[in-house]
Amino acid sequence: MDLKITTLAGADAGKVKLSEEIFGLDPREDILQRVVRWQLAKKQQGTHQAKGRADIARTGAKMYKQKGTGRARHHSARAPQFRGGGKAHGPVARSHEHDLPKKVRALGLKLALSAKAKTENLIVVDDLKLADAKTKALIANFTALGLSNALVIGGSELDVNFKRAATNIPNIDVLPIQGINVYDILRRGTLVLSKAAVEALEERFK
């Protein structure tokens, strides 16, 4: 698959041949859903905690005698049915993380890249470098490229000026190639890859 390379200014910079095994697959929603669910579960803090009946600071003595009162049988005032009692089956601090095979994760990334290529929401830029860290200038470049909601993936090291200029632009995410992931690709409208990022991806999936 051949794709046009452009500069940040919008000028033509030749063509790049993309691997069909990475950018030419038929998207599968089930695999993408599994990978996104795995990512979000891993990201979830899991620090929610409710007090059970054992955590309540209240006497555990029997409230009143078992028989003869005409009332229901009760024991501790810490029981969940009483006001101020413990929560029954409440949330506890735990990890929400679950396993996902490496092959499925790798396939998910390929499918996400292929989905962007198939819908023509993939742009390859020759280099992500700026002479000055000027947000206004970068916004003008993005407008020329038709970018308003995008994920920008650079090489192993991002240009400092480019990263600083892009920080304040809403709906624009900038990541090095090590940080590329399925969730961020799918949540943004357009995927912008630098030439170095394309080379790194093809090297990764050899």
From TrEMBL:
InterPro entries: Ribosomal_uL4, Ribosomal_uL4-like, Ribosomal_uL4_dom_sf. This is Large ribosomal subunit protein uL4. One of its GO terms (molecular function) is rRNA binding. Keywords: Ribonucleoprotein, Ribosomal protein, RNA-binding, rRNA-binding. One of its GO terms (biological process) is translation. The keyword RNA-binding applies. Part of the 50S ribosomal subunit. It comes from Manganibacter manganicus. PANTHER family: 50S RIBOSOMAL PROTEIN L4, LARGE RIBOSOMAL SUBUNIT PROTEIN UL4M. Residues 65-97 are annotated as: Disordered. One of the primary rRNA binding proteins, this protein initially binds near the 5'-end of the 23S rRNA. It is important during the early stages of 50S assembly. It makes multiple contacts with different domains of the 23S rRNA in the assembled 50S subunit and ribosome. Forms part of the polypeptide exit tunnel. Belongs to the universal ribosomal protein uL4 family. One of its GO terms (cellular component) is ribonucleoprotein complex. It holds the Pfam family Ribosomal_L4. Residues 65-77 have a biased composition (Basic residues).
